[in-house]
What does this fold into?
Amino acid sequence: MAQYSQPQTQPSRSYETVGLGEWVGTFLLQCIPIVGFVLLLVWAFGSGAKPSKQNYARAMLILALAGVVLSIFFMVAFGALFASLVNELSYI
It folds into this structure.
């Protein structure tokens, strides 16, 4: 009886997992102000990062952008409110 062997394949890049130590290192590097932002850009748009880390970096950049937009909106809104209050008090 003939023996058939399965061809050996390398695991594809999409199935590579990020280990616990690598995630801890990722979070610690993100705590460094400018370095963390640059690393997010490299992980999000570079070709060397694992897919899960690449998706994480893209999500964090989207959340950071949303935070900046909301911060600007609230600064303008509360600035206008403060200006109108100061204007009201100047008539008294």
User: Anything to note?
Assistant: Residues 51-90 form the longest helix (40 residues).
